[in-house]
Queue: 2 jobs
Job 1
Amino acid sequence: MEKKQISFELTIFNSLDEMLPEDANLVMESKRAMANSYSPYSNFSVGAALLLESGKILLGSNQENASFPAGVCAERVPLFYAGANHPDEEIKAIAITASPREHHSKEPAAPCGICRQAISEYENKQKKPIRILMRGYSGPIYKCDSISDLLPLGFNSSFL
Ligand SMILES: [Zn+2]
Protein backbone atom coordinates (compact mmCIF):
# COMPACT_ATOMS: atom_id res chain seq x y z
CA MET A 1 0.00 0.00 0.00
CA GLU A 2 1.07 3.51 -0.63
CA LYS A 3 -0.36 6.81 0.40
CA LYS A 4 0.18 9.90 -1.66
CA GLN A 5 -0.27 13.45 -0.48
CA ILE A 6 -1.56 15.88 -3.08
CA SER A 7 -1.29 19.54 -2.18
CA PHE A 8 -1.69 22.83 -3.96
CA GLU A 9 -0.69 26.42 -3.44
CA LEU A 10 -3.30 29.11 -2.97
CA THR A 11 -2.22 32.73 -3.04
CA ILE A 12 -4.41 35.03 -0.98
CA PHE A 13 -4.38 38.76 -1.69
CA ASN A 14 -5.96 41.01 0.90
CA SER A 15 -6.68 43.72 -1.64
CA LEU A 16 -6.52 44.41 -5.36
CA ASP A 17 -3.51 46.66 -4.75
CA GLU A 18 -1.36 43.64 -3.95
CA MET A 19 -2.07 42.04 -7.31
CA LEU A 20 -0.56 42.42 -10.75
CA PRO A 21 -2.53 45.23 -12.47
CA GLU A 22 -3.64 42.80 -15.20
CA ASP A 23 -5.15 40.43 -12.64
CA ALA A 24 -6.66 43.19 -10.50
CA ASN A 25 -8.36 44.59 -13.59
CA LEU A 26 -9.72 41.16 -14.49
CA VAL A 27 -11.21 40.78 -11.02
CA MET A 28 -12.89 44.18 -11.38
CA GLU A 29 -14.24 43.19 -14.79
CA SER A 30 -15.73 40.02 -13.30
CA LYS A 31 -17.49 42.14 -10.70
CA ARG A 32 -18.83 44.36 -13.48
CA ALA A 33 -20.11 41.25 -15.27
CA MET A 34 -22.25 40.35 -12.24
CA ALA A 35 -24.65 43.12 -13.25
CA ASN A 36 -26.00 40.93 -16.07
CA SER A 37 -26.47 37.87 -13.90
CA TYR A 38 -29.90 36.36 -14.56
CA SER A 39 -30.48 34.53 -11.30
CA PRO A 40 -34.09 35.01 -10.17
CA TYR A 41 -34.17 31.56 -8.54
CA SER A 42 -30.96 31.48 -6.52
CA ASN A 43 -30.45 35.24 -6.05
CA PHE A 44 -26.78 34.36 -6.32
CA SER A 45 -24.94 36.62 -8.75
CA VAL A 46 -21.80 35.42 -10.44
CA GLY A 47 -19.65 37.31 -12.91
CA ALA A 48 -16.73 35.90 -14.85
CA ALA A 49 -14.04 37.64 -16.87
CA LEU A 50 -11.74 35.69 -19.11
CA LEU A 51 -8.42 37.07 -20.35
CA LEU A 52 -7.13 36.04 -23.76
CA GLU A 53 -3.52 36.15 -24.88
CA SER A 54 -4.27 39.22 -27.03
CA GLY A 55 -5.42 41.14 -23.95
CA LYS A 56 -9.07 40.87 -24.96
CA ILE A 57 -11.41 40.27 -22.02
CA LEU A 58 -14.62 38.26 -22.40
CA LEU A 59 -17.38 38.60 -19.83
CA GLY A 60 -20.04 36.20 -18.65
CA SER A 61 -22.57 35.82 -15.88
CA ASN A 62 -24.75 33.02 -14.57
CA GLN A 63 -27.92 32.47 -16.61
CA GLU A 64 -30.61 30.52 -14.80
CA ASN A 65 -33.73 28.86 -16.16
CA ALA A 66 -37.11 27.77 -14.77
CA SER A 67 -35.98 24.34 -15.92
CA PHE A 68 -32.98 24.40 -13.58
CA PRO A 69 -30.56 22.14 -15.52
CA ALA A 70 -30.95 24.38 -18.58
CA GLY A 71 -29.10 27.20 -16.82
CA VAL A 72 -25.39 27.77 -17.10
CA CYS A 73 -22.72 29.03 -14.72
CA ALA A 74 -20.94 32.33 -15.35
CA GLU A 75 -17.56 30.68 -15.96
CA ARG A 76 -18.70 28.61 -18.91
CA VAL A 77 -20.23 31.56 -20.77
CA PRO A 78 -16.93 33.29 -21.72
CA LEU A 79 -15.09 29.97 -21.77
CA PHE A 80 -17.28 28.52 -24.51
CA TYR A 81 -17.41 31.86 -26.29
CA ALA A 82 -13.60 31.81 -26.39
CA GLY A 83 -13.66 28.23 -27.67
CA ALA A 84 -16.18 29.13 -30.35
CA ASN A 85 -14.77 32.48 -31.47
CA HIS A 86 -11.09 32.49 -30.51
CA PRO A 87 -10.19 28.79 -30.79
CA ASP A 88 -6.49 29.37 -31.46
CA GLU A 89 -5.93 31.97 -28.78
CA GLU A 90 -4.48 31.06 -25.43
CA ILE A 91 -6.64 31.65 -22.37
CA LYS A 92 -4.46 33.27 -19.72
CA ALA A 93 -6.79 33.63 -16.77
CA ILE A 94 -10.37 33.66 -15.56
CA ALA A 95 -11.65 35.78 -12.68
CA ILE A 96 -14.86 34.96 -10.83
CA THR A 97 -16.79 37.24 -8.51
CA ALA A 98 -19.73 35.63 -6.72
CA SER A 99 -22.11 36.79 -4.04
CA PRO A 100 -25.68 36.39 -2.84
CA ARG A 101 -27.63 39.53 -3.76
CA GLU A 102 -29.22 39.78 -0.31
CA HIS A 103 -25.96 40.17 1.55
CA HIS A 104 -22.58 40.91 0.05
CA SER A 105 -20.22 38.03 0.62
CA LYS A 106 -16.57 38.57 1.52
CA GLU A 107 -15.81 34.88 1.00
CA PRO A 108 -14.47 33.83 -2.41
CA ALA A 109 -16.52 31.08 -4.08
CA ALA A 110 -14.64 28.53 -6.14
CA PRO A 111 -15.98 27.21 -9.46
CA CYS A 112 -18.38 24.25 -9.26
CA GLY A 113 -17.23 20.81 -10.32
CA ILE A 114 -18.65 21.06 -13.84
CA CYS A 115 -16.88 24.37 -14.46
CA ARG A 116 -13.61 22.96 -13.12
CA GLN A 117 -13.94 20.15 -15.64
CA ALA A 118 -14.75 22.62 -18.44
CA ILE A 119 -11.77 24.86 -17.60
CA SER A 120 -9.57 21.76 -17.37
CA GLU A 121 -10.53 20.77 -20.93
CA TYR A 122 -9.27 24.09 -22.31
CA GLU A 123 -6.14 23.97 -20.18
CA ASN A 124 -5.37 20.52 -21.60
CA LYS A 125 -6.18 21.71 -25.11
CA GLN A 126 -3.79 24.66 -24.96
CA LYS A 127 -1.20 22.82 -22.86
CA LYS A 128 -0.73 25.92 -20.74
CA PRO A 129 -2.21 26.66 -17.33
CA ILE A 130 -5.10 29.05 -16.79
CA ARG A 131 -4.92 31.27 -13.70
CA ILE A 132 -8.03 31.20 -11.56
CA LEU A 133 -8.92 34.30 -9.53
CA MET A 134 -11.82 34.13 -7.08
CA ARG A 135 -13.52 36.75 -4.94
CA GLY A 136 -16.72 37.46 -3.06
CA TYR A 137 -18.41 40.83 -3.53
CA SER A 138 -15.40 42.30 -1.72
CA GLY A 139 -12.70 40.98 0.55
CA PRO A 140 -9.70 38.77 -0.18
CA ILE A 141 -8.87 37.38 -3.59
CA TYR A 142 -7.77 33.76 -4.01
CA LYS A 143 -5.45 32.82 -6.85
CA CYS A 144 -4.58 29.38 -8.21
CA ASP A 145 -2.06 29.07 -11.01
CA SER A 146 -3.83 26.16 -12.69
CA ILE A 147 -7.23 24.49 -12.63
CA SER A 148 -5.41 21.24 -11.81
CA ASP A 149 -4.97 22.72 -8.32
CA LEU A 150 -8.75 22.73 -7.92
CA LEU A 151 -9.30 19.46 -9.79
CA PRO A 152 -6.60 17.00 -8.80
CA LEU A 153 -6.69 13.62 -10.56
CA GLY A 154 -8.95 15.19 -13.16
CA PHE A 155 -10.46 13.25 -16.03
CA ASN A 156 -9.11 14.07 -19.48
CA SER A 157 -8.91 12.74 -23.03
CA SER A 158 -5.86 10.61 -22.25
CA PHE A 159 -8.21 8.13 -20.55
CA LEU A 160 -10.37 7.66 -23.66
ZN1 LIG B 1 -20.11 26.08 -12.49
Job 2
Amino acid sequence: MSDKPVASHDSGNPENLLRFMMTGWATPPEPPATPIDGAGLFAGRRQALSQAFRGETLIVPTGHEKTRANDTVYRFRPGTDFYYLTGNHEPDNVLVLASAGDAHAATLYCEPNPGKADATFFTDRVKGELWVGPRLGLQQTAQRYGIATKPLAALADDLVAALGRAPYRALRAIDPQLDAALPAQAERDAELATALSEMRLIKDELEVGELRRAVEATHRGFDDVVRALPGAQTERTVEGVFNLRARVDGNDTGYNTIAASGPNACTLHWTRNDRRIGENELLLLDAGVEAESLYTADITRTLPISGRFTPEQRAVYELVLAAQDAAFAQCKPGNDFLDPNRAAMGVLAQGLERLGILSSAEEALRDENVFYKRYSLHNVSHMLGLDVHDCAAARAENYKHGKLRAGMTLTVEPGLYFQLDDLTVPARYRGIGVRIEDDVLITETGVDVLSAAIPRTVEDVEAWIAAAKAVV
Ligand SMILES: [Mn+2]
Protein backbone atom coordinates (compact mmCIF):
# COMPACT_ATOMS: atom_id res chain seq x y z
CA MET A 1 0.00 0.00 0.00
CA SER A 2 1.04 3.59 -0.52
CA ASP A 3 2.35 5.38 2.53
CA LYS A 4 0.10 8.36 1.74
CA PRO A 5 -2.81 8.66 4.16
CA VAL A 6 -6.12 7.52 2.76
CA ALA A 7 -9.08 9.84 3.26
CA SER A 8 -11.91 8.74 5.56
CA HIS A 9 -14.22 8.33 2.58
CA ASP A 10 -11.86 6.62 0.12
CA SER A 11 -10.38 3.14 -0.23
CA GLY A 12 -6.68 2.29 -0.39
CA ASN A 13 -4.48 1.45 -3.36
CA PRO A 14 -3.15 -2.12 -3.50
CA GLU A 15 0.37 -2.59 -4.91
CA ASN A 16 -0.98 -4.20 -8.06
CA LEU A 17 -3.05 -1.14 -8.80
CA LEU A 18 -0.09 1.16 -8.18
CA ARG A 19 2.05 -0.87 -10.59
CA PHE A 20 -0.77 -0.67 -13.14
CA MET A 21 -1.14 3.07 -12.66
CA MET A 22 2.59 3.63 -13.20
CA THR A 23 2.61 2.19 -16.71
CA GLY A 24 1.01 2.87 -20.06
CA TRP A 25 1.28 6.67 -20.22
CA ALA A 26 2.51 8.58 -23.22
CA THR A 27 5.84 10.38 -22.74
CA PRO A 28 4.80 13.93 -21.90
CA PRO A 29 5.89 16.61 -24.35
CA GLU A 30 7.91 19.27 -22.61
CA PRO A 31 7.46 22.49 -24.52
CA PRO A 32 9.36 25.36 -22.94
CA ALA A 33 7.12 27.51 -20.76
CA THR A 34 6.27 30.97 -22.07
CA PRO A 35 8.09 33.73 -20.19
CA ILE A 36 5.75 36.03 -18.28
CA ASP A 37 5.02 39.55 -19.51
CA GLY A 38 7.34 42.09 -17.95
CA ALA A 39 9.90 39.51 -16.84
CA GLY A 40 12.55 42.24 -17.04
CA LEU A 41 10.58 44.47 -14.67
CA PHE A 42 10.29 41.69 -12.11
CA ALA A 43 14.06 41.06 -12.43
CA GLY A 44 14.70 44.78 -11.91
CA ARG A 45 12.71 44.71 -8.68
CA ARG A 46 14.77 41.78 -7.38
CA GLN A 47 17.98 43.60 -8.29
CA ALA A 48 16.82 46.80 -6.57
CA LEU A 49 15.89 44.93 -3.40
CA SER A 50 19.26 43.16 -3.34
CA GLN A 51 21.05 46.47 -3.80
CA ALA A 52 19.19 47.87 -0.81
CA PHE A 53 20.60 45.07 1.36
CA ARG A 54 24.09 44.44 -0.03
CA GLY A 55 25.94 41.46 1.35
CA GLU A 56 22.81 39.94 2.86
CA THR A 57 20.58 36.96 2.11
CA LEU A 58 16.89 37.85 1.69
CA ILE A 59 14.18 35.23 2.05
CA VAL A 60 10.71 35.94 0.66
CA PRO A 61 8.13 33.10 0.76
CA THR A 62 4.73 33.04 -0.94
CA GLY A 63 3.01 30.88 1.69
CA HIS A 64 0.89 27.76 1.48
CA GLU A 65 -2.68 26.84 0.77
CA LYS A 66 -4.85 27.45 3.82
CA THR A 67 -7.33 24.97 5.23
CA ARG A 68 -10.98 25.96 4.98
CA ALA A 69 -12.35 22.87 6.71
CA ASN A 70 -10.96 19.37 7.25
CA ASP A 71 -9.24 18.55 3.95
CA THR A 72 -10.58 21.37 1.80
CA VAL A 73 -8.57 24.50 1.17
CA TYR A 74 -9.19 28.06 0.03
CA ARG A 75 -8.10 28.92 -3.48
CA PHE A 76 -4.44 29.87 -3.20
CA ARG A 77 -3.48 33.53 -3.53
CA PRO A 78 0.27 34.27 -3.65
CA GLY A 79 2.01 36.38 -1.05
CA THR A 80 1.96 39.95 -2.34
CA ASP A 81 5.67 40.74 -2.00
CA PHE A 82 6.70 37.36 -3.38
CA TYR A 83 4.47 37.93 -6.39
CA TYR A 84 5.81 41.48 -6.83
CA LEU A 85 9.34 40.06 -7.10
CA THR A 86 8.56 37.04 -9.28
CA GLY A 87 5.14 37.15 -10.99
CA ASN A 88 4.68 33.56 -9.79
CA HIS A 89 1.22 32.27 -8.79
CA GLU A 90 2.10 28.80 -7.41
CA PRO A 91 1.96 27.96 -3.69
CA ASP A 92 4.81 26.88 -1.40
CA ASN A 93 7.61 28.65 -3.29
CA VAL A 94 10.38 30.56 -1.55
CA LEU A 95 12.53 33.21 -3.21
CA VAL A 96 16.07 33.58 -1.91
CA LEU A 97 18.16 36.56 -2.97
CA ALA A 98 21.87 36.54 -2.22
CA SER A 99 24.07 39.53 -2.83
CA ALA A 100 27.79 40.10 -2.50
CA GLY A 101 28.97 43.53 -3.60
CA ASP A 102 27.34 44.24 -6.94
CA ALA A 103 26.76 40.56 -7.65
CA HIS A 104 23.27 39.29 -7.04
CA ALA A 105 21.78 35.83 -7.36
CA ALA A 106 18.13 34.84 -7.19
CA THR A 107 16.95 31.29 -6.56
CA LEU A 108 13.38 30.11 -6.56
CA TYR A 109 12.76 27.02 -4.44
CA CYS A 110 9.74 25.12 -5.73
CA GLU A 111 8.13 21.69 -5.77
CA PRO A 112 9.40 19.52 -8.62
CA ASN A 113 6.85 18.12 -11.04
CA PRO A 114 7.58 14.41 -11.09
CA GLY A 115 5.03 13.82 -13.83
CA LYS A 116 4.05 10.15 -13.60
CA ALA A 117 7.54 9.08 -12.57
CA ASP A 118 6.35 8.31 -9.04
CA ALA A 119 2.99 7.27 -7.66
CA THR A 120 2.26 10.59 -5.98
CA PHE A 121 0.57 11.82 -9.16
CA PHE A 122 -2.21 9.43 -8.17
CA THR A 123 -1.79 8.91 -4.43
CA ASP A 124 -1.19 12.46 -3.15
CA ARG A 125 -4.56 14.14 -2.94
CA VAL A 126 -2.97 17.45 -1.90
CA LYS A 127 -0.31 17.82 -4.59
CA GLY A 128 -0.88 14.95 -7.02
CA GLU A 129 -1.41 15.86 -10.66
CA LEU A 130 -4.55 13.72 -11.01
CA TRP A 131 -6.07 15.40 -7.92
CA VAL A 132 -5.21 19.07 -8.33
CA GLY A 133 -3.58 19.45 -11.75
CA PRO A 134 0.09 19.66 -12.72
CA ARG A 135 2.68 21.98 -11.21
CA LEU A 136 5.19 23.78 -13.39
CA GLY A 137 8.15 22.08 -11.73
CA LEU A 138 11.76 23.21 -11.76
CA GLN A 139 12.50 23.55 -15.45
CA GLN A 140 9.30 25.25 -16.53
CA THR A 141 9.34 27.56 -13.51
CA ALA A 142 12.84 28.69 -14.47
CA GLN A 143 11.76 29.27 -18.07
CA ARG A 144 8.57 31.07 -17.17
CA TYR A 145 9.93 33.41 -14.49
CA GLY A 146 13.55 33.72 -15.60
CA ILE A 147 14.90 32.69 -12.20
CA ALA A 148 17.17 29.76 -11.35
CA THR A 149 15.24 27.03 -9.52
CA LYS A 150 16.03 24.38 -6.93
CA PRO A 151 13.79 21.80 -5.27
CA LEU A 152 12.01 22.95 -2.12
CA ALA A 153 13.47 19.95 -0.30
CA ALA A 154 16.94 21.52 -0.65
CA LEU A 155 15.90 24.78 1.00
CA ALA A 156 16.59 23.86 4.62
CA ASP A 157 20.18 22.72 3.98
CA ASP A 158 20.88 25.61 1.62
CA LEU A 159 19.65 28.10 4.20
CA VAL A 160 21.91 26.66 6.88
CA ALA A 161 24.86 27.09 4.50
CA ALA A 162 23.81 30.56 3.31
CA LEU A 163 23.13 31.86 6.79
CA GLY A 164 26.57 30.74 7.86
CA ARG A 165 28.06 32.97 5.17
CA ALA A 166 25.99 36.14 5.41
CA PRO A 167 23.44 37.92 7.58
CA TYR A 168 19.85 37.34 6.53
CA ARG A 169 16.41 38.86 6.65
CA ALA A 170 13.13 37.03 6.12
CA LEU A 171 9.65 38.24 5.24
CA ARG A 172 7.57 37.05 8.19
CA ALA A 173 4.01 35.89 8.84
CA ILE A 174 3.60 34.36 5.38
CA ASP A 175 5.07 30.87 5.81
CA PRO A 176 4.77 29.41 9.33
CA GLN A 177 7.26 26.59 8.62
CA LEU A 178 9.89 29.05 7.50
CA ASP A 179 9.17 31.34 10.45
CA ALA A 180 9.73 28.40 12.80
CA ALA A 181 12.96 27.38 11.06
CA LEU A 182 14.60 30.83 10.99
CA PRO A 183 15.41 32.55 14.28
CA ALA A 184 13.44 35.80 14.39
CA GLN A 185 15.21 39.15 14.24
CA ALA A 186 12.21 41.40 14.72
CA GLU A 187 13.78 44.69 13.70
CA ARG A 188 15.84 43.45 10.75
CA ASP A 189 12.96 41.40 9.36
CA ALA A 190 10.58 44.32 9.71
CA GLU A 191 13.01 46.48 7.71
CA LEU A 192 12.75 44.04 4.81
CA ALA A 193 8.94 44.23 4.87
CA THR A 194 9.18 48.02 5.00
CA ALA A 195 11.59 48.16 2.05
CA LEU A 196 9.21 46.05 -0.04
CA SER A 197 6.15 48.13 0.88
CA GLU A 198 8.03 51.35 0.08
CA MET A 199 9.22 50.02 -3.29
CA ARG A 200 5.57 49.32 -4.06
CA LEU A 201 4.47 52.90 -3.24
CA ILE A 202 5.35 54.05 -6.78
CA LYS A 203 3.75 52.01 -9.54
CA ASP A 204 5.50 51.38 -12.85
CA GLU A 205 3.73 51.30 -16.22
CA LEU A 206 3.00 47.60 -16.04
CA GLU A 207 1.32 48.05 -12.67
CA VAL A 208 -0.72 51.08 -13.73
CA GLY A 209 -1.88 49.17 -16.82
CA GLU A 210 -3.00 46.27 -14.65
CA LEU A 211 -4.86 48.59 -12.28
CA ARG A 212 -6.67 50.10 -15.27
CA ARG A 213 -7.71 46.60 -16.35
CA ALA A 214 -8.95 45.82 -12.84
CA VAL A 215 -10.95 49.06 -12.79
CA GLU A 216 -12.46 48.34 -16.22
CA ALA A 217 -13.50 44.85 -15.13
CA THR A 218 -14.97 46.32 -11.95
CA HIS A 219 -16.95 48.80 -14.06
CA ARG A 220 -18.44 45.84 -15.95
CA GLY A 221 -19.26 44.20 -12.61
CA PHE A 222 -21.09 47.34 -11.44
CA ASP A 223 -22.97 47.42 -14.76
CA ASP A 224 -23.98 43.79 -14.16
CA VAL A 225 -25.29 44.66 -10.71
CA VAL A 226 -27.24 47.68 -11.97
CA ARG A 227 -28.88 45.46 -14.60
CA ALA A 228 -29.71 42.86 -11.94
CA LEU A 229 -31.13 45.34 -9.40
CA PRO A 230 -34.80 45.16 -10.47
CA GLY A 231 -34.86 41.44 -9.76
CA ALA A 232 -32.42 41.38 -6.86
CA GLN A 233 -34.31 40.50 -3.71
CA THR A 234 -31.37 40.11 -1.38
CA GLU A 235 -27.84 41.32 -0.89
CA ARG A 236 -26.69 37.81 -1.76
CA THR A 237 -27.81 38.29 -5.34
CA VAL A 238 -25.82 41.50 -5.61
CA GLU A 239 -22.72 39.80 -4.24
CA GLY A 240 -23.16 36.82 -6.54
CA VAL A 241 -23.64 38.94 -9.66
CA PHE A 242 -20.55 41.02 -8.96
CA ASN A 243 -18.44 38.04 -7.96
CA LEU A 244 -19.34 36.24 -11.17
CA ARG A 245 -17.79 39.11 -13.10
CA ALA A 246 -14.71 38.97 -10.88
CA ARG A 247 -14.10 35.33 -11.76
CA VAL A 248 -14.93 35.73 -15.45
CA ASP A 249 -12.83 38.85 -16.05
CA GLY A 250 -10.20 38.50 -13.36
CA ASN A 251 -8.65 36.22 -10.79
CA ASP A 252 -11.24 36.89 -8.08
CA THR A 253 -12.57 39.74 -5.99
CA GLY A 254 -9.74 41.70 -4.38
CA TYR A 255 -11.58 41.59 -1.03
CA ASN A 256 -14.93 40.38 0.21
CA THR A 257 -17.69 42.24 -1.62
CA ILE A 258 -19.69 44.64 0.54
CA ALA A 259 -23.31 44.57 -0.65
CA ALA A 260 -25.03 46.65 2.02
CA SER A 261 -28.66 47.64 1.68
CA GLY A 262 -30.54 50.14 3.80
CA PRO A 263 -29.05 50.62 7.27
CA ASN A 264 -26.40 47.96 6.61
CA ALA A 265 -24.59 50.67 4.63
CA CYS A 266 -23.74 52.18 8.01
CA THR A 267 -21.63 49.12 8.83
CA LEU A 268 -18.35 49.85 7.08
CA HIS A 269 -17.35 46.30 6.23
CA TRP A 270 -20.75 44.66 5.90
CA THR A 271 -19.88 41.39 4.14
CA ARG A 272 -22.54 39.06 5.55
CA ASN A 273 -24.72 40.23 2.65
CA ASP A 274 -27.71 38.25 3.84
CA ARG A 275 -30.43 40.89 4.06
CA ARG A 276 -33.56 41.28 1.99
CA ILE A 277 -33.42 44.58 0.07
CA GLY A 278 -36.22 47.10 0.63
CA GLU A 279 -37.90 49.12 -2.11
CA ASN A 280 -36.82 52.69 -1.51
CA GLU A 281 -33.50 51.95 0.11
CA LEU A 282 -29.97 52.64 -0.97
CA LEU A 283 -27.58 49.87 -1.90
CA LEU A 284 -23.95 50.52 -1.04
CA LEU A 285 -21.75 48.31 -3.20
CA ASP A 286 -18.04 48.35 -2.33
CA ALA A 287 -16.33 45.84 -4.58
CA GLY A 288 -13.27 45.30 -6.72
CA VAL A 289 -12.16 42.86 -9.35
CA GLU A 290 -8.66 41.53 -8.79
CA ALA A 291 -7.05 41.07 -12.21
CA GLU A 292 -5.20 37.88 -13.05
CA SER A 293 -2.08 39.91 -12.33
CA LEU A 294 -3.50 40.29 -8.78
CA TYR A 295 -3.82 44.10 -8.96
CA THR A 296 -7.21 45.03 -7.54
CA ALA A 297 -9.68 47.85 -7.94
CA ASP A 298 -11.57 49.17 -4.90
CA ILE A 299 -14.69 51.06 -5.89
CA THR A 300 -17.89 52.05 -4.13
CA ARG A 301 -21.15 53.30 -5.54
CA THR A 302 -24.31 53.98 -3.55
CA LEU A 303 -27.38 53.30 -5.65
CA PRO A 304 -31.08 54.03 -5.09
CA ILE A 305 -32.91 50.74 -5.52
CA SER A 306 -36.00 52.50 -6.89
CA GLY A 307 -33.93 54.34 -9.47
CA ARG A 308 -34.50 57.74 -7.81
CA PHE A 309 -32.91 59.19 -4.68
CA THR A 310 -35.38 60.39 -2.04
CA PRO A 311 -34.79 64.03 -0.99
CA GLU A 312 -33.01 62.88 2.20
CA GLN A 313 -30.86 60.32 0.38
CA ARG A 314 -30.02 62.92 -2.23
CA ALA A 315 -29.01 65.53 0.34
CA VAL A 316 -26.56 63.12 1.95
CA TYR A 317 -25.31 61.86 -1.41
CA GLU A 318 -24.66 65.36 -2.77
CA LEU A 319 -22.70 66.21 0.34
CA VAL A 320 -20.45 63.14 0.03
CA LEU A 321 -20.01 63.91 -3.66
CA ALA A 322 -18.91 67.48 -2.87
CA ALA A 323 -16.45 66.13 -0.32
CA GLN A 324 -15.03 63.76 -2.92
CA ASP A 325 -14.64 66.58 -5.46
CA ALA A 326 -12.78 68.63 -2.86
CA ALA A 327 -10.52 65.66 -2.17
CA PHE A 328 -9.80 65.10 -5.90
CA ALA A 329 -8.70 68.74 -6.15
CA GLN A 330 -6.01 68.05 -3.53
CA CYS A 331 -4.67 64.96 -5.29
CA LYS A 332 -1.43 66.24 -6.82
CA PRO A 333 2.27 65.61 -6.37
CA GLY A 334 3.85 67.53 -3.52
CA ASN A 335 0.67 67.75 -1.47
CA ASP A 336 0.44 65.90 1.81
CA PHE A 337 -1.06 62.43 1.57
CA LEU A 338 -3.58 63.76 4.11
CA ASP A 339 -4.52 66.91 2.16
CA PRO A 340 -7.39 65.21 0.26
CA ASN A 341 -8.69 63.95 3.61
CA ARG A 342 -8.51 67.41 5.19
CA ALA A 343 -10.39 68.93 2.26
CA ALA A 344 -13.09 66.25 2.33
CA MET A 345 -13.60 66.50 6.08
CA GLY A 346 -13.93 70.27 5.83
CA VAL A 347 -16.74 69.90 3.30
CA LEU A 348 -18.44 67.16 5.31
CA ALA A 349 -18.32 69.16 8.54
CA GLN A 350 -19.79 72.26 6.87
CA GLY A 351 -22.52 70.12 5.32
CA LEU A 352 -23.28 68.37 8.60
CA GLU A 353 -23.77 71.80 10.14
CA ARG A 354 -26.16 72.78 7.32
CA LEU A 355 -28.15 69.56 7.86
CA GLY A 356 -28.48 70.46 11.52
CA ILE A 357 -26.40 67.52 12.70
CA LEU A 358 -23.32 69.38 13.92
CA SER A 359 -23.96 72.59 15.86
CA SER A 360 -20.66 74.10 14.67
CA ALA A 361 -18.42 72.86 11.87
CA GLU A 362 -15.59 75.01 13.15
CA GLU A 363 -15.75 73.46 16.59
CA ALA A 364 -16.14 69.95 15.11
CA LEU A 365 -13.05 70.35 12.93
CA ARG A 366 -10.68 71.21 15.79
CA ASP A 367 -8.00 68.55 16.28
CA GLU A 368 -9.05 67.96 19.87
CA ASN A 369 -12.68 67.34 18.78
CA VAL A 370 -12.99 65.84 15.26
CA PHE A 371 -16.71 65.37 16.03
CA TYR A 372 -17.51 64.93 12.32
CA LYS A 373 -15.84 61.54 12.58
CA ARG A 374 -18.91 60.19 14.40
CA TYR A 375 -20.56 60.27 10.95
CA SER A 376 -17.61 59.91 8.53
CA LEU A 377 -15.81 57.18 10.51
CA HIS A 378 -12.76 56.72 8.24
CA ASN A 379 -10.16 58.70 6.30
CA VAL A 380 -10.67 59.04 2.57
CA SER A 381 -7.56 57.40 1.10
CA HIS A 382 -5.37 54.34 1.20
CA MET A 383 -2.80 53.06 -1.25
CA LEU A 384 -4.09 50.58 -3.80
CA GLY A 385 -2.22 47.96 -5.78
CA LEU A 386 -1.60 44.26 -5.30
CA ASP A 387 -3.19 44.61 -1.88
CA VAL A 388 -6.41 46.53 -1.51
CA HIS A 389 -4.82 48.29 1.47
CA ASP A 390 -1.46 48.42 -0.25
CA CYS A 391 2.03 49.14 1.09
CA ALA A 392 0.90 48.51 4.67
CA ALA A 393 4.45 48.19 6.03
CA ALA A 394 5.63 51.55 4.65
CA ARG A 395 6.82 53.99 7.29
CA ALA A 396 4.36 56.71 8.30
CA GLU A 397 6.75 59.44 7.10
CA ASN A 398 6.62 57.98 3.61
CA TYR A 399 2.90 57.19 3.57
CA LYS A 400 0.35 58.62 6.00
CA HIS A 401 2.50 61.60 6.97
CA GLY A 402 4.34 61.76 3.64
CA LYS A 403 3.78 63.53 0.35
CA LEU A 404 1.83 62.44 -2.68
CA ARG A 405 4.18 61.52 -5.55
CA ALA A 406 3.62 60.80 -9.22
CA GLY A 407 3.04 57.08 -9.72
CA MET A 408 1.13 56.54 -6.48
CA THR A 409 -2.29 54.92 -6.82
CA LEU A 410 -4.85 55.40 -4.09
CA THR A 411 -8.54 55.53 -3.31
CA VAL A 412 -10.59 58.65 -2.65
CA GLU A 413 -13.62 57.54 -0.67
CA PRO A 414 -15.49 59.87 1.62
CA GLY A 415 -18.61 58.57 3.32
CA LEU A 416 -21.36 59.53 5.71
CA TYR A 417 -23.07 57.02 7.95
CA PHE A 418 -26.09 57.85 10.06
CA GLN A 419 -26.75 54.97 12.40
CA LEU A 420 -30.38 53.97 12.99
CA ASP A 421 -30.08 54.60 16.73
CA ASP A 422 -28.11 57.86 16.59
CA LEU A 423 -30.19 60.43 18.48
CA THR A 424 -27.89 63.27 17.34
CA VAL A 425 -29.21 62.82 13.79
CA PRO A 426 -32.66 64.02 12.64
CA ALA A 427 -34.88 60.93 12.31
CA ARG A 428 -35.32 61.34 8.56
CA TYR A 429 -31.60 60.78 7.94
CA ARG A 430 -31.14 57.81 10.26
CA GLY A 431 -30.25 54.58 8.53
CA ILE A 432 -28.77 56.34 5.51
CA GLY A 433 -25.19 55.39 4.62
CA VAL A 434 -23.39 56.74 1.57
CA ARG A 435 -19.86 56.12 0.35
CA ILE A 436 -18.46 57.10 -3.03
CA GLU A 437 -15.07 55.61 -3.82
CA ASP A 438 -12.86 56.04 -6.84
CA ASP A 439 -9.33 54.92 -7.67
CA VAL A 440 -6.80 57.53 -8.75
CA LEU A 441 -3.28 57.75 -10.14
CA ILE A 442 -1.15 60.72 -9.08
CA THR A 443 0.46 62.10 -12.24
CA GLU A 444 3.28 64.63 -12.76
CA THR A 445 0.69 67.41 -13.01
CA GLY A 446 -2.26 66.26 -10.90
CA VAL A 447 -4.56 63.30 -10.89
CA ASP A 448 -5.99 60.72 -13.27
CA VAL A 449 -9.24 59.29 -11.91
CA LEU A 450 -8.98 55.72 -13.19
CA SER A 451 -12.63 54.96 -12.44
CA ALA A 452 -14.06 58.22 -13.85
CA ALA A 453 -16.16 56.32 -16.40
CA ILE A 454 -18.35 54.77 -13.69
CA PRO A 455 -21.44 56.98 -13.13
CA ARG A 456 -21.08 59.07 -10.00
CA THR A 457 -23.26 62.17 -9.95
CA VAL A 458 -26.93 61.97 -8.91
CA GLU A 459 -28.08 62.55 -12.49
CA ASP A 460 -25.65 60.03 -13.97
CA VAL A 461 -26.46 57.35 -11.39
CA GLU A 462 -30.22 57.74 -11.93
CA ALA A 463 -29.73 57.64 -15.72
CA TRP A 464 -27.54 54.53 -15.37
CA ILE A 465 -30.28 52.68 -13.47
CA ALA A 466 -33.01 53.94 -15.82
CA ALA A 467 -31.08 52.77 -18.87
CA ALA A 468 -30.60 49.32 -17.36
CA LYS A 469 -34.34 49.10 -16.56
CA ALA A 470 -35.22 50.13 -20.12
CA VAL A 471 -33.16 47.24 -21.49
CA VAL A 472 -34.80 44.77 -19.12
MN1 LIG B 1 -11.23 51.40 -0.08
